[in-house]
Amino acid sequence: MSESEKNTARSLRRPARTALGALSGALAGCAALAVAEAVAGAVRVQAGPLVAVGGAAIDGTPAAVKDWAIRTFGSNDKLVLRLGILAVLALFALALGVVALRFRRSGAAGVLLFGMVGAAAATGRPDSAGVSDALPSLCGAAVGAVVLYVLAGRLTHQNPGSDLGTGPENDASTDGSWDRRGFVVAAGVTAVASVGAGLLGSALAGARGRGAVASRAAVRLPAPGSPARAVPRGAGLRIAGVSPFMTPNSDFYRVDTALVVPKVDATTWRLRIHGKGVRRPVVLGYDDLLHRELIERDITLTCVSNEVGGPYVGNARWTGVRLADLLAECGVRPPSAGGPADQLVARSVDGMTIGSPVEDLMDGRDALLAVGMNGEPLPFDHGFPVRMVVPGLYGYVSACKWIEDIELTTFGSYDPYWVKRGWARRAPVKTQSRIDTPKPFARPASGTVLVAGVAWAQHRGIDTVEVRVDDGPWQRARLAAEDSRDTWRQWSLPWAAAKGTHTLTVRATDRTGRTQTGERTRTVPDGASGWHSVVVTVE
Protein backbone atom coordinates (compact mmCIF):
# COMPACT_ATOMS: atom_id res chain seq x y z
CA MET A 1 0.00 0.00 0.00
CA SER A 2 1.39 3.45 -0.91
CA GLU A 3 1.79 6.24 1.65
CA SER A 4 -1.22 8.13 0.25
CA GLU A 5 -3.33 4.99 0.46
CA LYS A 6 -2.27 4.51 4.08
CA ASN A 7 -3.39 8.03 4.87
CA THR A 8 -6.88 7.35 3.52
CA ALA A 9 -7.27 3.81 4.84
CA ARG A 10 -9.83 3.42 7.58
CA SER A 11 -11.03 0.54 9.66
CA LEU A 12 -14.38 -0.81 8.44
CA ARG A 13 -16.49 -3.31 10.32
CA ARG A 14 -17.92 -6.33 8.52
CA PRO A 15 -21.62 -5.16 8.39
CA ALA A 16 -20.58 -1.79 6.97
CA ARG A 17 -18.24 -3.47 4.48
CA THR A 18 -21.06 -5.77 3.36
CA ALA A 19 -23.40 -2.81 2.93
CA LEU A 20 -20.85 -0.93 0.85
CA GLY A 21 -20.23 -4.06 -1.20
CA ALA A 22 -23.96 -4.27 -1.93
CA LEU A 23 -23.91 -0.57 -2.83
CA SER A 24 -21.07 -1.27 -5.24
CA GLY A 25 -23.17 -3.94 -6.92
CA ALA A 26 -26.13 -1.57 -7.16
CA LEU A 27 -23.99 1.15 -8.72
CA ALA A 28 -22.50 -1.34 -11.17
CA GLY A 29 -25.98 -2.53 -12.10
CA CYS A 30 -27.20 1.05 -12.64
CA ALA A 31 -24.18 1.79 -14.80
CA ALA A 32 -24.73 -1.35 -16.85
CA LEU A 33 -28.41 -0.58 -17.46
CA ALA A 34 -27.78 3.08 -18.25
CA VAL A 35 -25.05 2.31 -20.78
CA ALA A 36 -27.11 -0.50 -22.30
CA GLU A 37 -30.12 1.78 -22.78
CA ALA A 38 -27.89 4.51 -24.26
CA VAL A 39 -26.48 2.03 -26.79
CA ALA A 40 -30.00 0.75 -27.49
CA GLY A 41 -31.07 4.31 -28.24
CA ALA A 42 -28.42 4.40 -30.94
CA VAL A 43 -28.92 0.84 -32.20
CA ARG A 44 -32.60 -0.04 -31.69
CA VAL A 45 -34.81 0.69 -28.68
CA GLN A 46 -36.25 -2.82 -28.71
CA ALA A 47 -32.73 -4.25 -28.26
CA GLY A 48 -32.38 -2.80 -24.77
CA PRO A 49 -32.04 -5.46 -22.05
CA LEU A 50 -35.22 -4.50 -20.19
CA VAL A 51 -37.32 -4.78 -23.34
CA ALA A 52 -35.55 -7.89 -24.62
CA VAL A 53 -35.63 -9.81 -21.35
CA GLY A 54 -39.17 -8.61 -20.68
CA GLY A 55 -40.29 -9.78 -24.11
CA ALA A 56 -38.67 -13.17 -23.57
CA ALA A 57 -40.44 -13.40 -20.20
CA ILE A 58 -43.79 -12.62 -21.84
CA ASP A 59 -43.19 -15.20 -24.56
CA GLY A 60 -42.27 -17.87 -22.02
CA THR A 61 -45.11 -17.18 -19.60
CA PRO A 62 -47.97 -19.74 -19.65
CA ALA A 63 -51.30 -18.46 -21.00
CA ALA A 64 -53.00 -18.79 -17.62
CA VAL A 65 -50.37 -16.57 -15.98
CA LYS A 66 -50.68 -13.95 -18.74
CA ASP A 67 -54.43 -14.03 -18.28
CA TRP A 68 -54.03 -13.53 -14.52
CA ALA A 69 -51.67 -10.58 -15.08
CA ILE A 70 -54.14 -8.86 -17.41
CA ARG A 71 -57.03 -9.46 -14.99
CA THR A 72 -55.02 -8.24 -12.03
CA PHE A 73 -53.03 -5.34 -13.44
CA GLY A 74 -54.95 -4.42 -16.60
CA SER A 75 -53.12 -1.96 -18.85
CA ASN A 76 -50.41 -1.67 -16.15
CA ASP A 77 -49.28 -5.27 -16.67
CA LYS A 78 -46.21 -4.16 -18.65
CA LEU A 79 -45.24 -1.62 -16.01
CA VAL A 80 -45.50 -4.32 -13.36
CA LEU A 81 -43.33 -6.63 -15.49
CA ARG A 82 -40.70 -3.92 -15.92
CA LEU A 83 -40.67 -3.24 -12.18
CA GLY A 84 -40.40 -6.97 -11.51
CA ILE A 85 -37.41 -7.29 -13.84
CA LEU A 86 -35.76 -4.28 -12.21
CA ALA A 87 -36.34 -5.80 -8.76
CA VAL A 88 -34.70 -9.08 -9.82
CA LEU A 89 -31.78 -7.20 -11.37
CA ALA A 90 -31.38 -5.14 -8.21
CA LEU A 91 -31.22 -8.24 -6.00
CA PHE A 92 -28.78 -9.87 -8.43
CA ALA A 93 -26.58 -6.75 -8.43
CA LEU A 94 -26.60 -6.46 -4.64
CA ALA A 95 -25.59 -10.11 -4.32
CA LEU A 96 -22.76 -9.72 -6.84
CA GLY A 97 -21.49 -6.69 -4.95
CA VAL A 98 -21.18 -8.74 -1.76
CA VAL A 99 -19.52 -11.60 -3.64
CA ALA A 100 -17.02 -9.17 -5.17
CA LEU A 101 -15.71 -8.28 -1.68
CA ARG A 102 -13.94 -11.64 -1.62
CA PHE A 103 -13.92 -12.61 -5.29
CA ARG A 104 -13.57 -9.52 -7.48
CA ARG A 105 -13.21 -11.41 -10.73
CA SER A 106 -16.13 -13.67 -9.95
CA GLY A 107 -18.35 -10.69 -9.18
CA ALA A 108 -17.37 -8.97 -12.42
CA ALA A 109 -17.90 -12.22 -14.32
CA GLY A 110 -21.41 -12.42 -12.89
CA VAL A 111 -22.24 -9.03 -14.44
CA LEU A 112 -20.87 -10.23 -17.78
CA LEU A 113 -22.96 -13.40 -17.53
CA PHE A 114 -26.14 -11.44 -17.09
CA GLY A 115 -25.15 -9.29 -20.08
CA MET A 116 -24.89 -12.44 -22.17
CA VAL A 117 -28.41 -13.40 -21.06
CA GLY A 118 -29.69 -10.03 -22.24
CA ALA A 119 -27.83 -10.36 -25.54
CA ALA A 120 -29.28 -13.82 -26.13
CA ALA A 121 -32.78 -12.54 -25.36
CA ALA A 122 -32.37 -9.60 -27.76
CA THR A 123 -31.06 -11.64 -30.69
CA GLY A 124 -33.65 -14.35 -30.09
CA ARG A 125 -36.68 -12.04 -30.39
CA PRO A 126 -38.94 -12.49 -33.44
CA ASP A 127 -38.26 -8.89 -34.52
CA SER A 128 -34.50 -9.09 -33.94
CA ALA A 129 -32.32 -7.11 -36.36
CA GLY A 130 -29.49 -9.60 -35.90
CA VAL A 131 -26.16 -9.55 -34.09
CA SER A 132 -26.30 -5.79 -33.59
CA ASP A 133 -29.12 -6.30 -31.09
CA ALA A 134 -26.61 -7.93 -28.73
CA LEU A 135 -24.53 -4.75 -28.47
CA PRO A 136 -26.59 -2.90 -25.82
CA SER A 137 -26.50 -5.75 -23.29
CA LEU A 138 -22.86 -6.62 -23.94
CA CYS A 139 -21.65 -3.01 -23.75
CA GLY A 140 -23.64 -2.37 -20.60
CA ALA A 141 -22.36 -5.55 -18.97
CA ALA A 142 -18.74 -4.70 -19.81
CA VAL A 143 -19.05 -1.29 -18.18
CA GLY A 144 -20.86 -2.76 -15.17
CA ALA A 145 -18.17 -5.39 -14.70
CA VAL A 146 -15.39 -2.78 -14.74
CA VAL A 147 -17.28 -0.58 -12.29
CA LEU A 148 -17.81 -3.43 -9.84
CA TYR A 149 -14.18 -4.54 -10.11
CA VAL A 150 -12.91 -1.02 -9.38
CA LEU A 151 -15.32 -0.30 -6.51
CA ALA A 152 -14.65 -3.64 -4.87
CA GLY A 153 -10.93 -2.88 -5.11
CA ARG A 154 -11.41 0.37 -3.19
CA LEU A 155 -13.07 -1.63 -0.41
CA THR A 156 -10.51 -4.43 -0.23
CA HIS A 157 -7.11 -2.83 -0.97
CA GLN A 158 -6.04 -6.03 -2.69
CA ASN A 159 -3.64 -6.21 -5.59
CA PRO A 160 -5.73 -5.23 -8.62
CA GLY A 161 -4.29 -8.10 -10.61
CA SER A 162 -5.19 -10.83 -8.16
CA ASP A 163 -8.34 -12.55 -7.04
CA LEU A 164 -8.94 -13.12 -3.35
CA GLY A 165 -8.35 -16.55 -2.00
CA THR A 166 -9.73 -18.21 1.10
CA GLY A 167 -6.64 -18.02 3.28
CA PRO A 168 -6.39 -15.52 6.15
CA GLU A 169 -3.68 -13.56 4.37
CA ASN A 170 -6.02 -12.92 1.45
CA ASP A 171 -9.25 -12.41 3.38
CA ALA A 172 -10.15 -8.73 2.95
CA SER A 173 -12.22 -8.77 6.12
CA THR A 174 -9.25 -9.53 8.38
CA ASP A 175 -7.83 -6.01 8.72
CA GLY A 176 -10.88 -3.97 7.66
CA SER A 177 -8.85 -1.38 5.73
CA TRP A 178 -10.35 0.43 2.77
CA ASP A 179 -9.70 3.40 0.55
CA ARG A 180 -12.52 5.69 1.60
CA ARG A 181 -11.55 8.61 -0.58
CA GLY A 182 -11.02 6.39 -3.63
CA PHE A 183 -14.35 4.63 -3.08
CA VAL A 184 -16.31 7.84 -2.68
CA VAL A 185 -14.75 9.36 -5.81
CA ALA A 186 -15.31 6.22 -7.89
CA ALA A 187 -18.89 5.80 -6.63
CA GLY A 188 -19.67 9.47 -7.30
CA VAL A 189 -18.24 9.35 -10.81
CA THR A 190 -20.20 6.18 -11.50
CA ALA A 191 -23.47 7.69 -10.28
CA VAL A 192 -23.05 10.89 -12.32
CA ALA A 193 -21.97 8.98 -15.43
CA SER A 194 -24.93 6.61 -15.08
CA VAL A 195 -27.37 9.51 -14.91
CA GLY A 196 -25.72 11.03 -17.97
CA ALA A 197 -25.88 7.77 -19.90
CA GLY A 198 -29.52 7.34 -18.96
CA LEU A 199 -30.39 10.83 -20.19
CA LEU A 200 -28.45 10.20 -23.38
CA GLY A 201 -30.35 6.98 -23.94
CA SER A 202 -33.69 8.74 -23.49
CA ALA A 203 -32.65 11.49 -25.88
CA LEU A 204 -31.49 9.00 -28.54
CA ALA A 205 -34.65 6.92 -28.20
CA GLY A 206 -36.76 10.06 -28.52
CA ALA A 207 -34.83 11.16 -31.59
CA ARG A 208 -35.37 7.81 -33.29
CA GLY A 209 -39.12 8.21 -32.84
CA ARG A 210 -39.35 11.79 -34.07
CA GLY A 211 -39.66 10.78 -37.70
CA ALA A 212 -42.63 8.57 -36.88
CA VAL A 213 -44.27 11.31 -34.81
CA ALA A 214 -43.74 13.82 -37.62
CA SER A 215 -45.14 11.42 -40.20
CA ARG A 216 -48.31 10.93 -38.16
CA ALA A 217 -48.69 14.67 -37.61
CA ALA A 218 -48.49 15.19 -41.39
CA VAL A 219 -51.30 12.74 -42.19
CA ARG A 220 -54.55 14.18 -43.49
CA LEU A 221 -57.04 11.38 -43.86
CA PRO A 222 -59.05 11.68 -47.08
CA ALA A 223 -62.82 11.80 -46.81
CA PRO A 224 -64.14 8.23 -46.88
CA GLY A 225 -65.84 7.14 -50.07
CA SER A 226 -68.27 5.16 -47.93
CA PRO A 227 -68.82 7.13 -44.73
CA ALA A 228 -70.39 5.63 -41.63
CA ARG A 229 -73.99 6.55 -41.15
CA ALA A 230 -74.83 8.93 -38.34
CA VAL A 231 -75.18 7.25 -34.97
CA PRO A 232 -78.95 6.75 -34.53
CA ARG A 233 -80.67 8.99 -32.08
CA GLY A 234 -81.10 7.09 -28.86
CA ALA A 235 -78.07 4.80 -29.34
CA GLY A 236 -76.45 6.48 -26.36
CA LEU A 237 -78.70 6.54 -23.28
CA ARG A 238 -76.55 9.05 -21.39
CA ILE A 239 -77.04 7.29 -18.10
CA ALA A 240 -74.50 8.13 -15.39
CA GLY A 241 -72.10 5.26 -14.89
CA VAL A 242 -72.73 3.60 -18.28
CA SER A 243 -69.88 3.47 -20.77
CA PRO A 244 -70.36 6.06 -23.54
CA PHE A 245 -71.51 4.66 -26.86
CA MET A 246 -68.31 5.85 -28.54
CA THR A 247 -65.12 5.16 -26.62
CA PRO A 248 -62.59 8.02 -26.77
CA ASN A 249 -59.18 7.02 -28.10
CA SER A 250 -57.57 7.87 -24.76
CA ASP A 251 -59.91 5.49 -22.93
CA PHE A 252 -59.84 2.62 -25.42
CA TYR A 253 -58.38 -0.53 -23.91
CA ARG A 254 -54.92 -1.67 -24.89
CA VAL A 255 -53.84 -5.30 -24.52
CA ASP A 256 -50.73 -6.49 -26.38
CA THR A 257 -47.25 -7.84 -25.70
CA ALA A 258 -45.25 -4.75 -26.74
CA LEU A 259 -43.18 -3.45 -23.82
CA VAL A 260 -42.20 -0.50 -26.01
CA VAL A 261 -44.90 0.83 -28.33
CA PRO A 262 -43.49 0.66 -31.89
CA LYS A 263 -43.20 4.04 -33.55
CA VAL A 264 -43.27 3.42 -37.27
CA ASP A 265 -42.58 6.13 -39.83
CA ALA A 266 -45.50 6.13 -42.26
CA THR A 267 -43.28 7.42 -45.06
CA THR A 268 -41.12 4.28 -44.98
CA TRP A 269 -43.79 1.78 -43.90
CA ARG A 270 -44.53 -1.07 -46.30
CA LEU A 271 -47.04 -3.93 -46.33
CA ARG A 272 -46.33 -7.13 -48.22
CA ILE A 273 -49.14 -9.49 -49.28
CA HIS A 274 -47.99 -12.92 -50.42
CA GLY A 275 -48.37 -16.65 -49.86
CA LYS A 276 -50.55 -19.59 -50.80
CA GLY A 277 -53.11 -18.77 -53.49
CA VAL A 278 -51.80 -15.22 -53.98
CA ARG A 279 -51.48 -14.97 -57.75
CA ARG A 280 -50.36 -11.33 -57.72
CA PRO A 281 -48.18 -10.53 -54.67
CA VAL A 282 -47.93 -6.83 -53.86
CA VAL A 283 -46.02 -4.41 -51.65
CA LEU A 284 -48.03 -1.37 -50.60
CA GLY A 285 -47.00 1.93 -49.03
CA TYR A 286 -49.05 4.11 -46.70
CA ASP A 287 -49.97 6.54 -49.49
CA ASP A 288 -51.10 3.60 -51.62
CA LEU A 289 -53.76 2.86 -49.03
CA LEU A 290 -54.80 6.49 -48.64
CA HIS A 291 -55.32 6.76 -52.40
CA ARG A 292 -57.72 3.83 -52.41
CA GLU A 293 -61.39 4.16 -51.54
CA LEU A 294 -61.68 4.39 -47.78
CA ILE A 295 -64.68 3.22 -45.82
CA GLU A 296 -65.73 4.31 -42.36
CA ARG A 297 -67.52 1.97 -39.94
CA ASP A 298 -68.50 1.83 -36.27
CA ILE A 299 -67.10 -1.42 -34.85
CA THR A 300 -66.86 -2.72 -31.29
CA LEU A 301 -63.68 -4.62 -30.44
CA THR A 302 -63.31 -7.13 -27.61
CA CYS A 303 -60.20 -8.73 -26.15
CA VAL A 304 -60.29 -12.46 -25.52
CA SER A 305 -58.77 -11.76 -22.09
CA ASN A 306 -61.92 -9.91 -21.07
CA GLU A 307 -63.48 -11.66 -18.08
CA VAL A 308 -67.26 -11.69 -17.65
CA GLY A 309 -68.15 -8.10 -16.81
CA GLY A 310 -64.61 -6.95 -17.69
CA PRO A 311 -63.43 -3.64 -19.19
CA TYR A 312 -61.58 -4.82 -22.31
CA VAL A 313 -64.24 -3.88 -24.83
CA GLY A 314 -64.68 -0.58 -26.65
CA ASN A 315 -66.50 0.98 -29.58
CA ALA A 316 -64.89 3.30 -32.14
CA ARG A 317 -65.36 4.69 -35.63
CA TRP A 318 -62.70 3.14 -37.84
CA THR A 319 -61.50 4.34 -41.25
CA GLY A 320 -59.69 2.04 -43.62
CA VAL A 321 -59.49 -0.08 -46.75
CA ARG A 322 -61.60 -3.19 -47.26
CA LEU A 323 -59.26 -6.11 -46.73
CA ALA A 324 -61.39 -8.42 -48.87
CA ASP A 325 -60.98 -6.11 -51.87
CA LEU A 326 -57.20 -6.09 -51.51
CA LEU A 327 -57.08 -9.86 -51.21
CA ALA A 328 -59.32 -10.31 -54.24
CA GLU A 329 -57.07 -8.03 -56.31
CA CYS A 330 -54.16 -10.27 -55.35
CA GLY A 331 -56.07 -13.27 -56.69
CA VAL A 332 -57.03 -14.69 -53.30
CA ARG A 333 -60.21 -16.76 -53.11
CA PRO A 334 -61.88 -17.92 -49.89
CA PRO A 335 -61.96 -21.67 -49.22
CA SER A 336 -65.68 -21.78 -50.09
CA ALA A 337 -64.73 -20.61 -53.60
CA GLY A 338 -61.88 -23.09 -53.99
CA GLY A 339 -59.07 -21.03 -52.50
CA PRO A 340 -56.13 -23.10 -51.14
CA ALA A 341 -55.49 -20.89 -48.08
CA ASP A 342 -57.81 -20.97 -45.06
CA GLN A 343 -55.64 -18.83 -42.74
CA LEU A 344 -54.29 -15.30 -43.11
CA VAL A 345 -51.25 -14.68 -40.93
CA ALA A 346 -50.64 -11.01 -40.15
CA ARG A 347 -47.21 -10.02 -38.85
CA SER A 348 -46.45 -6.93 -36.83
CA VAL A 349 -43.23 -4.91 -36.85
CA ASP A 350 -42.56 -6.26 -33.33
CA GLY A 351 -42.74 -9.88 -34.52
CA MET A 352 -46.27 -10.66 -33.32
CA THR A 353 -48.16 -13.14 -35.54
CA ILE A 354 -51.95 -13.29 -35.63
CA GLY A 355 -53.96 -15.82 -37.65
CA SER A 356 -57.43 -15.08 -39.06
CA PRO A 357 -59.84 -17.33 -40.99
CA VAL A 358 -59.77 -16.27 -44.65
CA GLU A 359 -63.43 -17.26 -45.02
CA ASP A 360 -64.47 -14.76 -42.34
CA LEU A 361 -62.36 -11.96 -43.82
CA MET A 362 -64.00 -12.38 -47.23
CA ASP A 363 -67.61 -13.16 -46.25
CA GLY A 364 -68.83 -9.58 -46.71
CA ARG A 365 -68.20 -8.20 -43.23
CA ASP A 366 -66.31 -4.91 -42.92
CA ALA A 367 -62.85 -6.34 -42.30
CA LEU A 368 -60.47 -3.39 -42.56
CA LEU A 369 -56.88 -2.38 -42.87
CA ALA A 370 -57.58 0.61 -40.65
CA VAL A 371 -55.70 3.90 -40.89
CA GLY A 372 -58.00 6.04 -38.74
CA MET A 373 -59.75 5.86 -35.38
CA ASN A 374 -62.51 8.24 -34.31
CA GLY A 375 -61.67 10.73 -37.05
CA GLU A 376 -57.90 10.91 -36.61
CA PRO A 377 -54.90 8.84 -37.73
CA LEU A 378 -54.45 5.77 -35.56
CA PRO A 379 -52.72 6.56 -32.25
CA PHE A 380 -49.37 4.80 -31.84
CA ASP A 381 -50.81 2.74 -28.97
CA HIS A 382 -53.47 1.40 -31.32
CA GLY A 383 -51.36 0.51 -34.31
CA PHE A 384 -50.24 3.54 -36.33
CA PRO A 385 -49.77 3.55 -39.23
CA VAL A 386 -51.98 0.55 -40.10
CA ARG A 387 -53.77 -2.20 -38.21
CA MET A 388 -56.41 -4.82 -38.86
CA VAL A 389 -59.97 -4.48 -37.55
CA VAL A 390 -62.40 -7.36 -38.05
CA PRO A 391 -65.89 -7.29 -36.54
CA GLY A 392 -66.98 -10.49 -34.80
CA LEU A 393 -63.55 -11.95 -34.02
CA TYR A 394 -61.56 -11.57 -30.82
CA GLY A 395 -58.48 -9.40 -31.22
CA TYR A 396 -55.93 -12.19 -30.90
CA VAL A 397 -57.23 -13.74 -34.14
CA SER A 398 -57.86 -10.54 -36.06
CA ALA A 399 -56.62 -7.21 -34.71
CA CYS A 400 -52.95 -7.11 -35.71
CA LYS A 401 -51.47 -3.71 -34.83
CA TRP A 402 -48.42 -2.16 -36.56
CA ILE A 403 -48.97 -4.65 -39.37
CA GLU A 404 -46.27 -5.05 -42.03
CA ASP A 405 -46.82 -8.47 -43.60
CA ILE A 406 -49.79 -10.60 -44.69
CA GLU A 407 -49.18 -14.22 -45.63
CA LEU A 408 -51.86 -16.58 -46.91
CA THR A 409 -51.38 -20.09 -45.53
CA THR A 410 -53.33 -22.88 -43.81
CA PHE A 411 -54.24 -23.62 -40.21
CA GLY A 412 -52.61 -27.01 -40.59
CA SER A 413 -49.23 -25.65 -41.64
CA TYR A 414 -48.70 -22.73 -39.27
CA ASP A 415 -49.55 -21.86 -35.66
CA PRO A 416 -49.46 -18.12 -34.83
CA TYR A 417 -48.17 -16.70 -31.56
CA TRP A 418 -51.22 -17.25 -29.34
CA VAL A 419 -52.13 -20.64 -30.79
CA LYS A 420 -48.68 -21.90 -29.84
CA ARG A 421 -49.53 -20.88 -26.28
CA GLY A 422 -52.75 -22.83 -25.96
CA TRP A 423 -55.41 -20.49 -27.37
CA ALA A 424 -57.94 -21.64 -29.95
CA ARG A 425 -57.28 -21.22 -33.68
CA ARG A 426 -60.74 -19.79 -34.32
CA ALA A 427 -62.40 -17.41 -31.89
CA PRO A 428 -65.67 -15.68 -32.78
CA VAL A 429 -66.77 -13.17 -30.16
CA LYS A 430 -69.22 -14.66 -27.65
CA THR A 431 -72.49 -12.97 -26.78
CA GLN A 432 -71.92 -10.99 -23.59
CA SER A 433 -73.60 -8.38 -21.41
CA ARG A 434 -72.41 -6.25 -18.53
CA ILE A 435 -73.96 -4.24 -15.69
CA ASP A 436 -72.28 -0.83 -15.50
CA THR A 437 -74.55 0.66 -12.86
CA PRO A 438 -75.09 0.16 -10.00
CA LYS A 439 -71.51 -0.80 -9.26
CA PRO A 440 -70.67 -3.91 -7.20
CA PHE A 441 -71.29 -3.36 -3.48
CA ALA A 442 -73.09 -0.08 -4.14
CA ARG A 443 -75.55 1.11 -1.48
CA PRO A 444 -78.41 2.81 -3.34
CA ALA A 445 -81.44 4.21 -1.56
CA SER A 446 -84.69 2.22 -1.72
CA GLY A 447 -87.13 3.14 -4.45
CA THR A 448 -86.57 3.19 -8.20
CA VAL A 449 -82.98 2.31 -9.10
CA LEU A 450 -81.87 2.36 -12.72
CA VAL A 451 -79.96 -0.78 -13.68
CA ALA A 452 -78.06 -0.26 -16.94
CA GLY A 453 -75.11 -1.40 -18.99
CA VAL A 454 -73.97 -2.67 -22.37
CA ALA A 455 -74.30 -5.89 -24.38
CA TRP A 456 -72.46 -7.08 -27.48
CA ALA A 457 -72.48 -9.88 -30.05
CA GLN A 458 -70.44 -8.42 -32.90
CA HIS A 459 -71.56 -9.33 -36.42
CA ARG A 460 -74.71 -10.97 -35.04
CA GLY A 461 -76.24 -8.10 -33.13
CA ILE A 462 -78.17 -7.94 -29.84
CA ASP A 463 -81.87 -8.83 -29.86
CA THR A 464 -82.85 -8.71 -26.18
CA VAL A 465 -81.32 -8.09 -22.75
CA GLU A 466 -82.87 -9.43 -19.55
CA VAL A 467 -82.20 -8.71 -15.90
CA ARG A 468 -82.94 -10.89 -12.87
CA VAL A 469 -83.13 -9.73 -9.26
CA ASP A 470 -82.01 -12.49 -6.89
CA ASP A 471 -83.81 -15.68 -7.98
CA GLY A 472 -86.81 -13.87 -9.44
CA PRO A 473 -88.06 -13.95 -13.03
CA TRP A 474 -86.10 -12.52 -15.92
CA GLN A 475 -87.30 -9.03 -16.85
CA ARG A 476 -86.76 -7.58 -20.31
CA ALA A 477 -84.66 -4.41 -20.32
CA ARG A 478 -85.16 -1.44 -22.64
CA LEU A 479 -82.60 -1.46 -25.45
CA ALA A 480 -81.04 1.66 -26.87
CA ALA A 481 -81.25 2.16 -30.62
CA GLU A 482 -78.98 -0.11 -32.65
CA ASP A 483 -76.19 1.46 -34.68
CA SER A 484 -75.24 -1.78 -36.44
CA ARG A 485 -74.87 -5.45 -35.65
CA ASP A 486 -71.13 -4.83 -35.29
CA THR A 487 -71.50 -2.46 -32.33
CA TRP A 488 -72.56 -2.91 -28.75
CA ARG A 489 -75.94 -1.76 -27.43
CA GLN A 490 -76.75 0.03 -24.24
CA TRP A 491 -79.70 -1.12 -22.14
CA SER A 492 -81.55 -0.06 -18.98
CA LEU A 493 -84.18 -1.33 -16.54
CA PRO A 494 -85.95 0.64 -13.76
CA TRP A 495 -85.92 -1.53 -10.63
CA ALA A 496 -88.21 -1.07 -7.65
CA ALA A 497 -85.51 -1.69 -5.08
CA ALA A 498 -86.54 -2.92 -1.63
CA LYS A 499 -84.24 -2.66 1.37
CA GLY A 500 -81.74 -5.46 1.84
CA THR A 501 -78.90 -7.16 -0.03
CA HIS A 502 -79.71 -8.22 -3.60
CA THR A 503 -77.96 -9.87 -6.53
CA LEU A 504 -78.55 -8.39 -9.99
CA THR A 505 -77.82 -10.61 -13.00
CA VAL A 506 -77.92 -9.84 -16.72
CA ARG A 507 -78.01 -11.96 -19.87
CA ALA A 508 -78.40 -11.17 -23.59
CA THR A 509 -79.80 -12.92 -26.64
CA ASP A 510 -78.27 -12.29 -30.06
CA ARG A 511 -80.01 -11.98 -33.41
CA THR A 512 -79.47 -15.65 -34.19
CA GLY A 513 -81.78 -16.46 -31.26
CA ARG A 514 -78.98 -17.81 -29.07
CA THR A 515 -79.14 -16.73 -25.44
CA GLN A 516 -75.93 -16.06 -23.56
CA THR A 517 -74.99 -19.13 -21.55
CA GLY A 518 -74.87 -19.00 -17.77
CA GLU A 519 -72.07 -21.58 -17.64
CA ARG A 520 -69.04 -19.79 -16.27
CA THR A 521 -65.75 -20.41 -18.08
CA ARG A 522 -62.40 -18.62 -18.00
CA THR A 523 -60.91 -16.77 -20.94
CA VAL A 524 -58.59 -19.56 -22.12
CA PRO A 525 -58.86 -20.94 -24.79
CA ASP A 526 -61.50 -18.95 -26.69
CA GLY A 527 -63.05 -16.32 -24.42
CA ALA A 528 -64.97 -16.17 -21.16
CA SER A 529 -68.64 -17.06 -20.83
CA GLY A 530 -71.24 -16.70 -18.09
CA TRP A 531 -73.69 -14.14 -16.71
CA HIS A 532 -72.47 -10.95 -15.09
CA SER A 533 -73.79 -10.29 -11.58
CA VAL A 534 -73.37 -7.53 -9.03
CA VAL A 535 -74.32 -7.53 -5.36
CA VAL A 536 -75.80 -4.34 -3.91
CA THR A 537 -77.23 -3.35 -0.55
CA VAL A 538 -80.34 -1.17 -0.71
CA GLU A 539 -80.69 1.16 2.24
Helix content: 25-40%
What's the main sheet like? 5 strands, mixed
Radius of gyration: 29 Å
In whole angstroms, how far apart are the ends? 81 Å
Low-pLDDT stretches are 1-10, 158-174
Oligomer: single chain
Count of DSSP H/I helices: 11
How would you state the average pLDDT, rounded? 92
Overall geometric form: globular
**What is the beta-strand fraction?**
15-25%
Number of strands: 20
Provide the spatial order of strands within the biggest beta sheet.
4-3-12-7-8
The helix/strand class is alpha+beta
Descriptive tags:
539 residues; alpha+beta; five-stranded mixed β-sheet; 20 strands; 33% helix; 22% strand; globular; disordered N terminus
Describe the structure.
The protein is α+β, with helices and mostly antiparallel strands and about 550 residues long. It has eleven helices and 20 strands. A five-stranded mixed beta sheet has the order 4-3-12-7-8. Strands 5, 6, 9, 10 and 11 form a five-stranded antiparallel beta sheet that branches. Strands 13-14-18-17 form a four-stranded antiparallel beta sheet, with no helix packed on it. Helix 2 packs parallel to helix 8. It is globular, with a radius of gyration of 29 Å.
Strands, helices and their partners?
Elements: H1 3-8, E1 9-11, H2 14-43, H3 49-60, H4 63-73, H5 77-100, H6 104-123, H7 135-156, E2 177-179, H8 180-217, E3 270-275, E4 282-285, H9 286-290, E5 295-302, E6 313-322, H10 323-329, E7 343-348, E8 353-357, H11 358-361, E9 368-373, E10 376-377, E11 387-389, E12 403-409, E13 432-437, E14 447-456, E15 462-469, E16 475-476, E17 478-479, E18 489-497, E19 500-510, E20 532-538
Parallel strand pairs: 3-12
Antiparallel strand pairs: 1-2, 3-4, 5-6, 6-9, 7-8, 7-12, 9-10, 9-11, 13-14, 14-18, 15-16, 15-19, 17-18, 19-20
